[in-house]
Amino acid sequence: MGSIDAVEVHRKLFRDNIPDVILANGDPPHWRPIVDDSDYPSALLAKLVEEARELQDASPENRIDELADLFEVAAALMTEIGITSSEVKDVADRKRAARGGFTKRIWLDHVEIGKTAKA
Fold first, then answer.
1. Residue 66: CA atoms inside 13 Å, Cβ hemisphere, count?
2. DSSP state of 110
3. What whole-number distance in Å separates Cα of residue 31 and Cα of residue 12?
4. Contact 44, 76 (CB under 8 A)
5. pTM
6. What is the SS3 assignment for 52?
7. Phi-psi region of 100 (alpha: psi -120 to 50; beta: other; left: phi over 0)
8. Which ranges of the chain would DSSP assign to H, the alpha helix?
9. Could you tell me which of 30, 114, 43 has the C-alpha nearest to residue 76?
10. Secondary structure (3-state) at 90
11. What is the DSSP letter of 82?
12. Which of 29, 32, 79, 118 would staple 19 via disulfide (CB 3.0–4.6 Å)?
């Protein structure tokens, strides 16, 4: 029987083929499917935050990979909660029409509450 050098603890959602990749590298993964339907959306939301942080920390040449990961998690989340990408795009279009997008690159420093603005 072989000895264990180390154990990596993850306890998070992974892409479907990752256990096979780990096994192909000679390390036995210990995983289980999420069977409780209420746990899956929470796992996806946690993964979405993880991927957003990885995108934030990514080098410029790795940003497309991290955006792709973020996109994949968002797509899975949309499927799970029963909305389509066209529905999301419609809402984004409405919000852009009402509140604008990000093309002007506006950075809001602060707002002086109660001070009357001069027009």
1. 15
2. -
3. 10
4. yes
5. 0.82
6. helix
7. left
8. 18-24, 39-57, 63-81, 85-99
9. 43
10. helix
11. T
12. 29
Contact 16, 31 (CB under 8 A): no
pLDDT in single tens digits along all 119 residues of the chain: 677 888 989 999 999 999 999 999 999 999 999 988 889 999 999 999 999 999 999 999 999 999 999 999 999 999 999 999 999 999 999 999 999 999 999 999 999 999 887 76
b/e map of 73-92 (b: 16 or more CB within 10 Å)?
bbebbeeeeeeeeeeeeeee
5 by DSSP, 3-state: which? coil
Give 81-85 contacts, CB < 8 A, sequence gap 24+: 81/41
Amino acid identity of 62?
N
CB-based contact 13:49 (threshold 8 Å): no
Could you tell me if 51 and 66 are in contact, meaning their C-beta atoms sit under 8 angstroms apart? yes
CA 65 to chain centre: 12
Q: Which two tokens stand for residue 73?
A: 């998690």
Query: Which amino acid type is present at position 104?
Result: K
